[in-house]
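@channel sequence for tomorrow's demo:
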Amino acid sequence: MSIQWFPGHMHRARKEIAALMAKVDVVIEVLDARLPTFSENPMLRELRGTRPCLKLLNKSDLADPLVTMAWKEHFQREAGTVPLEVVATNARDARAIIALLPRMGPQRNLVMQPLVCLILGIPNVGKSTLMNTLVGRKVARAANQAAITTKKKRVHLNDEITLYDTPGVLWPKIEDEEASFMLAGSGAVRETAMDNTEVAARVGKYLLREYADLLRTRYKLDELPENEMGLLVEIGKKRGCLVKGGEVDLAKAAGILLNELRAGQIGRISLQKPPAWREG
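structure tokens (generated this afternoon):
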């Protein structure tokens, strides 16, 4: 299954980004630390070209720290790229970003000609939250759901740095099935774009393979179910998601799994591992 979800404001945003890019010095690409390259829009890579890129692995407090470390090593091998794990609401992380940006851009008098930075990323990855933290006040609407920002915003961070925030942009069609399900599981697309139960089942299959102990602890499972649908049934039983006749309401169980995953209540989980991890 592929995602085809490209609202009109995303099309406008792509055109705006292309127009802005000519005057941008440094690109700040916000990725989801739980699924870094799944949350990396290939269209944005094309638009960025050879400009220096600060890749922020946001929501790192929700991701598996060992996997995040491996992803940082992966991105360090990319020319012109500096990876940094962050939490968008963390003021200390914001200060580290502000200190790093001037060192990545052209060496010039930034008071006379401020550094122009553009924040990019897919929906619900934390761009607007990061903007608010960097500025120290609310300048962008932020919420834990996709497609909140619909227009670009510009703020002067200080005398030396100007920031542009843009709407989250997905590519018109996500062909990679695994990426589609994991992006949906992370909350990067609205729940109406894919079937919630199907998404939870695919994510559950991954969790059974990669994070079985966390599932066992969170849902007090004496034995792990044999498959992903069995996992949803067990979660439904544990949480009282029963309908007439004692059947489990799979849609409710799916909602519980996805909501608790997104909130970090199951544990620190990465939904994608780097190529070197799979080879090791």
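heads up for whoever presents: The mean pLDDT is 87.
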